[in-house]
Amino acid sequence: MNDQLNIEGLRQLYWSSANAQALLDHCANRTKNQTETKVDRVLLLLSQEGHAVRREDLIEVFRKLEVLGYGNFKLGRKGRQTRFIWSFEMVSVGREAAAERPKEGPYRTPASEYLARHPVPSKTDKISNRETADEAAPERQHAEFIQWMPFVLDALREFGGSATPREVYEAVARLAKVPDEKRFAKLKGGELRFPNQVAWARQYLIWEGFLASPKRGLWMLTDAGRSTKLSYERARQIFQKWVAVHAERRAQAQETQPEASDDATTEAAPNSYKEEMLAQLHSLSPAAFERFCADFLKHVGLERVEVTGGPGDKGIDGEGFLPIGPIVTTKVAFQCKRYSEAVSSKEVQSFQGAIGAAEKGIFFTTGYFTDSSRDAARSPGCKPIELINGDRLVELLEEHEFGLRPAKTYEVDYSFLRNYTKGDCQ
Questions:
Q1: Helix/strand/coil (H/E/C) assignment for every residue in the chain
Q2: 20-24, 141-145, 340-344: which range is least confident on average?
């Protein structure tokens, strides 16, 4: 790599963008250099490594690399930006990017000097489960969800060993003292970033054998998880271990699988359908969202559901009756807010005061609730309000298959097939 290139600009890009870090760390950890990178292929690989990167955001990173002189786009048959052709070895570019944080003033470090200090690992190199944090390469340490892994185990222990995803999210936020601005920050697709990261933490804990998921919507500690007090350093080692395991599996798969075509689309990142469902709900008109919520309440068992929203609705959008036995029913009022921002405690209190003869209220929003609005919903002496934010609503839609259809997919079991390629199977 020419040391006159804008290495400072490369490092500025790396340290200023989580998406750039994800891509360049991926490049740095590859076991062989490639002259080109397929956009949809790398999206799939990044999602498997725990990064929720959108296609347009990844393309933006490649565009910035193009401006810096590290390569250029090649268009596919349909005019889409499908491939990035590297001007230099992509592993070297990735490792150079993560070499150090930007400093004041210009500086240049030849790639040969950096690579002498950080040799490219061979295919047989693995990150040991016993590797210490100091021994690990610094460019591998940027997965933010690592910090939540110990708290997930602690949260499940609080619940006696099992809990729903929503219960775990809330317990982790409380135990880790996550501020509202971080807890309710959103990804560009509209999904809340914090639950997404906690879900990735869960996935690595499942791979490590600390968690099980015996049925949809339930997280459970295994015996190993119950007895393990996880430190941050140990969590980071687990992350490193499984990144290496999946990298090796991908390398083995690439040796036996042809490359995808120019215009092949990538497998969706985990939970991408949730982002899309939330975006669709947010695109509804207020009246349509009220009808949607009313129909969902009918679907889950409420009777005589009516939408009363509109001018002069007196603070409620609808009401219905919930059977609580063969004879008794209870009146329920509901409110629907098609928001992208937070619902305030004042709005919750206003709804509490408007539900009249109803014994309980349900507040739907495509946005989210702050701690103060949740406190208001549970205020002593006030009628209880069930708060359903956007993420919780999509979970319920998935559970009851309302507006979401289950899809079954298959993948090749390479470890199973290796039983037939070993030894003298002729």
A1: CCCCCCHHHHHHHHHHCHHHHHHHHHHHCCCCCCCEEEHHHHHHHHHHCCCCCCHHHHHHHHHHHHHCCCEEEEECCCCCEEEEEECCCHHHHHHHHCCCCCCCCCCCCCHHHHHHHCCCCCCCCCCCCCCCCCCCCHHHCCCHHHHHHHHHHHHHHHCCCEECHHHHHHHHHHHCCCCHHHHCCECCCCCEHHHHHHHHHHHHHHHHCCEECCCCCCEEECHHHHHCCCCHHHHHHHHHHHHHHHHHHHHHHHHHCCCCCCCCCCCCCCCHHHHHHHHHHHHCCHHHHHHHHHHHHHHCCCEEEEECCCCCCCCCCEEEEEECCCCCEEEEEEEEECCCCEECHHHHHHHHHHCCCCCEEEEEECCEECHHHHHHHCCCCCCCEEEECHHHHHHHHHHHCCCCCCCCCCCCCHHHHHHHCCCCCC
A2: 141-145
